């Protein structure tokens, strides 16, 4: 794994960051759904899961959109 990261191209690195942001967006979406199904309606919470989801999804999608053509070219 260390050798792959050492010799990875910029496109590969952007693709990994994009995938990480999309995973974080999926986690935020899961947590938002969990918050919507809470038993106590007054236990709102303090994390803006929807904003985090949207931000991470846009950043991750943008990074992957930039990285995929470079990864395909090799």
Contiguous helical run count: 3
* Helical residues, percent: over 70%
> Can you tell me the overall shape?
elongated
Number of strands: 0
Termini gap: 18 Å
Overall pLDDT metric: 89
Pattern of helices and strands: HHH
Helix/strand structural class: mainly alpha
What Rg is obtained from the alpha carbons, in whole angstroms? 16 Å
* Low-pLDDT stretches: none
Beta-strand content: under 5%
Number of domains: 1
Q: Summarize the biggest pleated sheet.
A: none
Brief overview:
By secondary structure, this protein is mainly alpha-helical.
List the helices and strands and how they pair.
Blueprint lengths: L1 H6 L2 H27 L12 H25 L1
List keywords for this structure.
74 residues; membrane; single chain; mainly alpha; 3 helices; transmembrane helix; PEP-CTERM protein-sorting domain-containing protein
Task: Give a structural overview.
The chain is an all-alpha fold and 74 residues long. 78% of the residues lie in helices and 0% in strands. The chain is built from three helices and no strands.
């Amino acid at each position: 794994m260390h050798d792959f990261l050492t010799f990875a191209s910029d496109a590969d690195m952007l693709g990994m960051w994009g995938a990480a942001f999309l995973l974080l967006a999926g986690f935020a979406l899961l947590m938002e759904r969990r918050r919507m199904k809470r038993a106590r309606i007054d236990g709102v919470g303090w994390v803006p899961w929807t904003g985090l989801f949207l931000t991470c999804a846009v950043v991750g999608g943008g990074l992957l959109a930039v990285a995929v053509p470079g990864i395909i070219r090799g």
